[in-house]
């Protein structure tokens, strides 16, 4: 039995040894949670993650059904299969939660993130930034004589790659929305 | 009159009282303050709901818990904003850990002052979010009745728990339209009651073939209602399987039943823990594999198939991997299981079962609870055993406890024949729980014999409630096992911390007889084992609250004990075995 790969604050060093019979391989899951759009509901979800020591890699939330007052929270989290099961069960237990869907289990989901990049520079750097933006289909949404703000959408990997390329060119600031996701297919 | 609907307008405070009545509430425990005065004004002007004035808000919540646990109905507490709400937090957490349905109403500063650090303002819904099943801040009087009805629904549906409604003072004053429970649209919160029939069939198959089965039951059986206990009894008698229970589940199966092995866990009985360790089929009904029960997880019942019946999906596979999970209400699942098992011919593996029982009988010969009462000092086990002997025939006996050694001795040496007769803080381990809980039990059962088995240290944590008991003539008997020590802390220091008894003695204790008299109650002190029976009879004969100061042996340890980090079959049975039993790894555990 190898030790659990859990982050700081976990119980892996406690002699409680709570999870010996489960797989210890960490997985990344995208979970969609449909909730009543009421005061404090986001705090309930976040409080659950912090209170029980789960990870949040990204989180997005917005109202998706104005008449039904329903919001959709998309959480990207990592954990062992047993932790992921617990996260879903614990989310499902929150009273204003209507539905919990593990998009990673349901099949390959469409995942998109929007990001804004501010890139500073003149001369060759400025031209290179524009050229790369074109390759990545990023739009210029603001411009000065020595800077651009690019808007880019894509999956997490694409945005990470764009950031890696822009960094040496003069990336000074970045804002990311976190992942929004839907399952593929007609269901 | 509302111009649009023609419905009569009433104030928020009137709505609170009306909604409580419509929910069948007859009792409220509370403490007034500025932010709940309009509600208190309405309570004053009616006679259907009785209000009991406690002496501390924590006690109001524990009293509501005692009321709920002894009746199966939700308990209600009413406290003011700020400190009233923060004092309720321990009770809310206690109720959450033990799944007790209670509704707590808190006052709040007026909506236009929220966030301004007003006098007696606290972010009550923020503070209580992690310690309630759900909570609401009501900012609109028209929403108030719907929220109150929904709150009762949430508190009592699925896995029960505490809910809190925070009501700003201007919402209590403003008028709105009242709606009754029947007029409110159905909540989307509807936990599933029926278990998956295929999983139940699997359980029945396992019952038919098991060689060394055991029922491991918990508070979920009691929360499911009396029908669940009846069905459990029927299933146990019909199959002939042995049964053990957690601290929370005592009374679901009668202690006098012939299949009863006693409580399991850290201070559980030898035969119960050994049977859990060696079984080949464990049927967990409404219990949650708490760390006090399992001991070392990787050595927990290694040879068994585990069936887990629970209404809360997050309890399943949380700690122990389950082979057959059954999500549903205990009574519903047991009914289906019994029906299926009977239809398939009531089969069990009789020959192997007989062998299993003879093994269990052998474990029983260890007599893990034996002790010797010698000399002129009362041993605490003896005190509890005499209390049991002199009260067990009372038709309406309720036992509450505080937390510590006395709690374990009460669980070990007292027998519970029915559910809802045993009120103890299991999950949170709240010292100071027993006295106010007993108060709530006595309010719900005026003719009941309510005894709070206590330690002197725990008891002092909510001793102010003697005033409440005297005021309302609640004849609760406080049976204090006084060893002038924080007994369980002392025991752990002896076993784990080199006998360095850091802050674990009770110095400057009050004279409990004089204390009782100061409150206007009766005090009895007893230190001689020969006087004990007469003193207990004197306590029982007194029609009124009694503090019974039972001076017991000071350094008694609670056995049997599974030391931290050990498995079920590595129990300590007595003093002789305690040298160096807990290694460094075990000592980090609580």
Q: Describe it for me?
A:
- Chain A is built from four helices and nine strands; from the N terminus they run βαββαββαββαββ.
- Chain A is α+β, with helices and mostly antiparallel strands and 187 residues long.
- In chain A, strand 2 (58-65) and strand 3 form a beta hairpin.
- Chain A has helices spanning 41-51, 81-93, 124-135, 156-170, and strands at residues 27-36, 58-65, 70-79, 97-102, 109-120, 139-144, 147-154, 171-176, 180-183.
- Helices cover 27% and strands 37% of the residues of chain A.
- In chain A, strands 5, 6, 7, 8 and 9 form a five-stranded antiparallel beta sheet that branches.
- Chain A has two domains: 27-102, ACT domain (Alpha-Beta Plaits); 109-183, Alpha-Beta Plaits.
- Chain B has three domains: 9-183, Rossmann fold (3-Layer(aba) Sandwich), CATH 3.40.50.970; 197-364, Rossmann fold, CATH 3.40.50; 380-551, 3-Layer(aba) Sandwich (Rossmann fold).
- In chain B, the strands form four sheets. In chain B, strands 3-2-4-5-7-6 form a six-stranded parallel beta sheet, sandwiched between helices. A six-stranded parallel beta sheet of chain B has the order 11-10-9-12-13-14, sandwiched between helices. Chain B has a six-stranded parallel beta sheet with strand order 16-15-17-18-20-19, with helices on both faces.
- The longest helix of chain B is centred in the first third of the chain and has 15 residues, at 57-71.
- Chain B contains 24 helices and 20 strands.
- With 590 residues, chain B is an alpha/beta fold.
- In chain B, helix 17 (405-413) links the parallel strand 15 (397-401) and strand 16.
- In chain B, 37% of the residues lie in helices and 16% in strands.
- The model of chain B has no long low-confidence stretch (mean pLDDT 95).
- In chain B, helix 3 packs parallel to helix 5 (89-98) and helix 3 packs across helix 18.
- Chain A binds chain B through residues 1, 14-22, 39-40, 43-44, 47, 51, 82, 85-86, 89-90, 92-96, 98, and chain B through 125-126, 129-130, 133-134, 137, 154, 159, 188-189, 291, 296-298, 312-314, 316-321, 564-565, 585-586, 588-589.
């Amino acid at each position: 039995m190898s030790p659990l790969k859990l982050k700081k604050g976990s119980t892996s060093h406690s002699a409680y040894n709570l999870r010996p019979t489960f797989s210890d391989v960490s997985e990344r899951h995208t979970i969609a949670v449909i909730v009543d759009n009421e005061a404090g509901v986001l705090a309930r979800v976040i409080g659950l993650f912090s209170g029980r020591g789960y990870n949040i890699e990204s989180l997005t939330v917005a109202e998706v059904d104005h008449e039904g007052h329903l919001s959709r929270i998309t959480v990207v989290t990592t954990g062992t299969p047993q932790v992921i099961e617990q996260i879903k069960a614990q989310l499902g237990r929150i009273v204003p939660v209507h539905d919990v869907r593990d998009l990673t289990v349901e099949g390959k989901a469409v995942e998109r993130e929007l990001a804004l990049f501010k890139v500073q520079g003149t001369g060759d750097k400025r031209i290179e930034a524009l050229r790369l933006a074109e390759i990545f289909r990023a739009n210029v949404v603001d411009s000065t004589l020595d800077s651009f703000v690019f808007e880019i959408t894509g999956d997490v990997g694409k945005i990470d790659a764009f950031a890696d390329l822009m960094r040496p060119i003069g990336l000074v600031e970045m804002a990311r929305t976190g992942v929004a996701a839907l399952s593929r297919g007609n269901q | 009159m509302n111009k649009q609907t023609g419905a009569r307008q009433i104030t928020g405070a009137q709505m609170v009282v009306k909604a409580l009545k419509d929910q069948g509430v007859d009792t409220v425990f509370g403490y007034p303050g500025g932010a709940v005065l309009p509600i208190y004004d309405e309570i004053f002007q009616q006679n259907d709901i009785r209000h009991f004035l406690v002496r501390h808000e924590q006690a109001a919540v524990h009293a509501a818990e005692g009321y709920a646990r002894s009746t199966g109905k939700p308990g209600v507490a009413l406290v003011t904003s700020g400190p009233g709400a923060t004092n309720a937090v321990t009770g809310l957490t206690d109720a959450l850990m033990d799944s007790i349905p209670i509704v707590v109403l808190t006052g709040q500063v007026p909506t236009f002052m929220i966030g301004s650090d007003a006098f007696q303002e606290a972010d009550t819904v923020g503070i209580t979010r992690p310690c309630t099943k759900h909570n609401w801040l009501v900012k609109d009087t028209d929403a108030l009745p719907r929220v109150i009805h929904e709150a009762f629904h949430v508190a009592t549906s699925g896995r029960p728990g505490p809910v809190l409604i925070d009501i700003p003072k201007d919402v209590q004053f403003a008028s709105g339209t009242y709606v009754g429970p029947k007029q409110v649209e159905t909540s989307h919160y509807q936990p599933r009651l029926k278990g998956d029939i295929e999983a139940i069939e699997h359980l029945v198959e396992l019952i038919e073939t098991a060689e060394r089965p055991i029922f491991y039951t918990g508070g979920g059986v009691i929360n499911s209602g009396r029908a669940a206990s009846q069905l459990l009894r029927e299933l146990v008698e019909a199959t002939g399987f042995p049964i053990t229970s957690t601290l929370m589940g005592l009374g679901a199966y009668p202690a006098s039943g012939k299949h009863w092995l006693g409580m399991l866990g850290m201070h559980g009985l030898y035969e119960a823990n050994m049977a859990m360790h060696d079984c080949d089929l464990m049927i967990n009904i409404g219990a949650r594999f708490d760390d006090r029960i399992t001991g070392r997880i990787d050595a927990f019942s290694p040879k068994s198939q585990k069936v887990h019946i629970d209404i809360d999906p997050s309890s399943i596979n949380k700690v122990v991997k389950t082979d057959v999970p059954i999500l549903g209400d205990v009574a519903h699942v047991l009914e289906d299981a019994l029906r299926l098992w009977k239809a398939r011919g009531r089969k069990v593996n009789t020959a192997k079962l007989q062998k299993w029982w003879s093994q269990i009988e052998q474990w029983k010969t260890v007599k893990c609870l034996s002790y010797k009462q010698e000399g002129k000092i009362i041993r605490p086990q003896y005190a509890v055993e005499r209390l049991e002997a002199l009260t067990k025939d009372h038709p309406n006996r309720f036992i509450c406890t505080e937390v510590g050694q006395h709690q374990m001795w009460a669980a070990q040496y007292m027998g519970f024949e029915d559910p809802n007769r045993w009120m103890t803080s299991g999950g949170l381990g709240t010292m100071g729980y027993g006295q106010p809980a007993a108060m709530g039990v006595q309010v719900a059962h005026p003719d009941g014999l309510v005894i709070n088995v206590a330690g002197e240290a725990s008891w002092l944590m909510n001793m102010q409630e003697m005033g409440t008991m005297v005021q309302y003539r609640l004849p609760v008997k406080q049976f204090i096992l006084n060893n002038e020590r924080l007994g369980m802390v002392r025991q752990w220091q002896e076993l784990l911390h080199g006998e360095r008894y850091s802050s674990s003695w009770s110095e400057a204790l009050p004279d409990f007889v004089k204390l009782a008299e100061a409150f206007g109650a009766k005090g009895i002190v007893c230190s001689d084992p020969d006087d004990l029976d007469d003193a207990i009879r004197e306590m029982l004969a007194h029609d009124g609250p009694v503090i019974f100061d039972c001076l017991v042996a000071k350094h008694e340890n609670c056995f049997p004990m599974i030391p931290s980090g050990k498995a079920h079959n590595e129990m300590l049975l007595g003093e002789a075995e305690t040298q160096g039993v807990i290694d460094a790894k075990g000592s980090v555990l609580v």
